[in-house]
Specification:
Strand order of the largest sheet: 2-1-3
Radius of gyration: 16 Å
Number of helices: 5
Structural class: mainly alpha
Order of helices and strands: HEHEHEHH
Distance between the termini: 24 Å
Strand content: 5-15%
């Protein structure tokens, strides 16, 4: 499950970076909000990723993270994304539910007994989940 989450995050950020690199030659800063605390393991990962993106793009793309919920709760962050005030967010299932309520099927209590069952659902439903997110 952790591997799946890391993969989803990496693919999401890769898409953001690709979109920014495809833009004009000036440096592009992608603004990304999260509830993760500033000194958490998550933020250390995000800051490391920001350095790598900057280095690998020769400074053409910068990732600016807003930790600690400084851009608001997840509902507000999703709204800011819709208004193009933010380019992305690292969100929980609550935030995903604000974007696409059907994603909350993964959170139904007692639906899964093991992580293997969760992984199986995600493997079989990945294309559908992606399509739902694209239309949102």
């Amino acid at each position: 499950m952790k591997r799946t989450l890391t993969s989803v995050l990496a693919l999401s950020f890769a898409a953001l970076v690709f979109a920014a690199v495809s833009a004009p030659a000036e440096a592009k800063t992608l603004r990304i909000a999260t509830l993760a605390p500033r000194n958490s393991t998550w933020m250390k990962f995000f800051y490391r990723m920001a350095r790598e993106v900057k280095n690998k793009t020769g400074g053409a793309v910068n990732l600016k993270f807003y930790p600690d919920g400084s851009m608001g709760d997840e509902a507000l962050v999703v709204e800011k994304m819709r208004l193009n005030q933010l380019h992305g967010a690292a969100i929980t299932a609550v935030g995903l539910g604000k974007i696409q309520p059907a994603m909350l099927v993964q959170q139904v209590p007692l639906l899964f007994k093991t992580y293997k069952e969760v992984d199986c659902l995600r493997e079989k439903m990945n294309a559908k989940f992606n399509a739902l997110m694209e239309e949102s």
